[in-house]
Amino acid sequence: MEINNWQQIEDVFHSAAALHGVERADYLAQSCGQNQTLRAEVESLLASLEERRDFLEEPAFDMGMKVLENSLDISLTGQEIGGYKILEKLGSGGMGEVYLADDVRLNRQVALKFLSNSLVDDAWAKRQLFREAQAVSMIDHPNICPVYDVKEIGVHSFIVMQYIEGKTLSDLIRNHQIEEKQYISIARQVTAALAAAHENGIIHRDIKAGNIMVTPNGQVKVLDFGLAKIIKNQKAGNLGSSPSLMTQTNAIVGTIASMSPEQLRAEKLDYRSDIFSLGIVFYELVTGRNPFLQTSDAETISAILTEQIKPITVLKNGNSAIFNRVIKKCLEKDKAKRYQSVSDLVLEFQNLQDKKPAKIGTMLFFRSLAAAVLLIIFLTVGAFVYQRAKAPRSLAVLPFINLSADSKNDFMSGMAETLIQKLSNSSHINVRPFTQVANYKTTDINPVEIGQNLKVDAVLTGKIIEQNNQLILETKLINIADGSQLWSDNSVLNESDTLVIQNNISEKIVSKLQSSLNGNDSKIRNSQYTANPEAYKYYLQGLDYWKKRDQNNIKKAIEAFNLATTTDPNYALAYSGLAYSYIVRPSVNYKAMQPKEAITLAKLYSEKAIGLDENLCEPHAALGAILHKYEWNWAAAEKQYRRAIELNPNVAQTYYWYSDLLAASGRFDEAVPMSLKAKELDPFTPLMDLNVGRVLYYARRFDEAEKYLTAVLKKDPDNTGAQAILAFVYLQQPSAEKHGAALKFLEDLYASDKKAYAASLGYAYGKAGKKAEAMAILNELERTENSDDYLPAHEKVLIYLGLDEKENAFFWLEKAYQERFMGLAALNVDPIYDGLRPDSRLQNLLIRMNFNNRF
Amino acid sequence: MISSLEITGLLVDWSNGDEVALEKLLPLVEKELHRLAHRQLRKMQPGNTLQTTALINETYLVLIKQNQVHWQNRAHFFGIAARLMRRILLNYLRDGQRLKRGGNAVRVSLSEATAISEAKADEFIALDDALEKLALFDERKSRVVELKFFGGLNVEEIAEVLKISNSTVVRDWVMAKAWLAREISDGNQ
């Protein structure tokens, strides 16, 4: 193939993609040098990427499923079945295929609706087919396609109905074959058909332009009652007075863009759901398009649930007003505000004139199959958009255990695995991966014990048992804290049912867990959240890594936040997560990223997040941190922190950074309480304790610092940050005993992480008068420096400060300044620099760091 | 009827590069997916949906019908499902184009059956060609696109199938997208 420097192109492409504007141009100029071909190649790739942001983002899998449905029919053409000679296929839909046939006896053409091949021996589908026949035969109305018979011959079940020569309303609309003067006529006929159905106690549930035929002489025939629900035999009458009698629990079937809000929510449906769908048909009729249809199902659903339609203004013949009124009232989100019965709607059209009919066409008979892919989307949109997700709660789903006699049921225990997948995809509950629970395939261990081992809030167990020749899946959700049972469920299993049961169970678990463990926490602003559960999951992972913030975790955090923004490019919080991560990245891994690069990226992502949501707290805090720690622009930084707190006063990280700024500025009276506030808001992140200790240390309140940090370490002996700060507190005090304790801490820390603690230990050795040891560490560091590892200049500053070698300390301090080392922000208060303070060079440096503006 | 053992064998053969094994597997998977899709639709309850991963997973479980799920094979199975979807969709769209060119009326219009516009159909076909081309010099990227776009898998699942890291998947995806987008728009000019 043509490309021989593909790898090079790719590398440059990715680096450039992370940059923008001038920075990108600079980078390209530098990395491509004279190689103009390379540069042109990368630039054109970047341009195509940016031009087509949404390219390939919506998977084609569902589309493939639909095609599969349509392509797999086994043609019946040419056969004669039960006195009907089948001529040609007219169309196919979710459950059936429609053929044109000759009724040999009566010598007339009819349409036969067969069950799809795959449903031939399916009892439910067959019942539904018969139900359709029954429903339609109850209604005798000129605008409803009549059913002549329903037959079961051999393996074939089918409905015999009138063959209508015509086109579907949706085809006519799409091909602009309807004239404005026909609108009223069509609307009136559809309404009349629906009124007849409702009077017979039948809800259609799938009213849409594709199910409405228009004959060449303009007659409307509503068809496809395949999803109809027969409520009862009594007349529809006064709906408002006894809604409970008139409703029926509904399953989600049908076509998303034609559904009512209550249908999408899978609520009980009554006639008013058909009225909403009718409103959509009217809208399509007069404007040529569906008012809610969007490019993705999720957006369509959201539009139906929340968007108000715009009035139509296109009609010339004076009917705009009536259509506007009718459509608006049909499409009320709240069914109580719609027409309460179709007969009200019939009245609207009664006095208007009939116009000339439509023309021509062949019958197409359709139901698009998989209206399916909607509920998870809807539910998760609901859960995330309308409810603020709190800290993730954790759950372990243990492998289901087969206690039935038949070992062939063993395979059902694999459901646990699918359930885990599903739960991790669709909820904000932290679900342990299958690999962690796979070994607990036994009844021997108490689930509470397992839950404690796995450190989860709850455990879900499942047993497959046999009772009265039925297989039953018994599931229990157990609260680990007190061993109580939060929820249990018994579902009858049959082998072909597993997917459905998984779906039910996972929905129940999600809702139960949320209410039992989370409590209600409902205040939110929408834009910071994502409707995409996958993106949300990555964000939570990133946050978790970020809180741990060491070299490895920051790398993982960046990866996770990147995945979140790739999955949902408008996810403001995830961008701010990236900004946070880049801010601290140099301090945990200097080699991977030096401050200047980090600032560029952190700024870029903060601004991106603010661009998406000006009112999001986090990116303002991030900007504050950049201005404070890297640019020493104290006033501007403080402004950003204040803005962040104003936007959301409950984010610990803001106070963490702000308290650090206040301390660095010598405003300890404000700094200490603020550091405590951060700790109060986020009591479980060890860094918050470190911060309190550090602020006290900067304030030289060594006794308090010692007391505080000792208490922290008593509770959490592994808090390495607290150990390090305590060591520095000890080192500032003239006590051999304390110096010894400091050395002990730092030697241990050094043993566990050489790179991170070398300089601190070197400083401590110097302070404690152990010159040789200090020099050894320095030599060690310099060796590392000579290898490919990058050494922050400040590491040497620290050691020379310990050794009290001022000249060397100043030399490297200047370099640290040039590097914009993050720790320098504390230059004016950190006791380690005390030895340098009388020297004018330090004053000079402080001035360059804008401290003169404050003091 | 083919046994689960044979299916496992076919999966292994395919993973070893035996394309004939894939040809044998595809109809089995297709039939099962088809059956499940139907059943799923009519069993729709509040809270249920066709979810790609769960659906493929269950197809696999049903086909394999065994307790111990071999992760390795399952990953290949996801690969097959993606390949299958790509083939189904493209055959369908190419047929549609042929019929159009041949002057035959397409009775089942594309948009009705698949909610796909004709412009989109053309783009899909161009995409398929471009993917073939990409595979010639970067097989892995073309697989990432196949799994994500046609298979509906998420980043982590793709990482598992291809045994690469999440970040590599994302990098491959972004790069492949850029290249494919350009390739397709070049083709249109």
Q: How would you summarize what this structure contains?
A:
The complex is a heterodimer of chains A (855) and B (189). Chain A has 855 residues and is an alpha+beta fold.
> Share of helix among residues of chain A?
40-55%
Q: Helicity range of the residues of chain B?
A: over 70%
Q: Judging by the overall fold, what is the CATH architecture of one domain in chain A?
A: Orthogonal Bundle
CATH H-level superfamily title of one domain in chain A:
Transferase(Phosphotransferase) domain 1
Strand count of chain A? 17
Beta-strand content bin of chain B:
under 5%
Q: What is the overall shape of chain B?
A: globular
Rg over C-alpha atoms of chain A, rounded to the nearest angstrom: 35 Å
Summed up, the helix count of chain A is: 35
Beta-strand proportion of chain A: 5-15%
CATH topology call of one domain in chain A: Transferase(Phosphotransferase), domain 1
Structural class of chain B: mainly alpha
Our measurement of the CA-to-CA distance between the termini of chain A, rounded to an integer number of angstroms, reads 66 Å
C-alpha geometry of chain A: elongated
Secondary structure category of chain A: alpha+beta
Query: What's the mean pLDDT score of chain A?
Result: 78
Tell me the span between the first and last alpha carbons of chain B: 50 Å
Rg of chain B (CA only) = 18 Å
Low-confidence stretches of chain B: 40-50, 102-115
CATH top level class name of one domain in chain A: Mainly Alpha
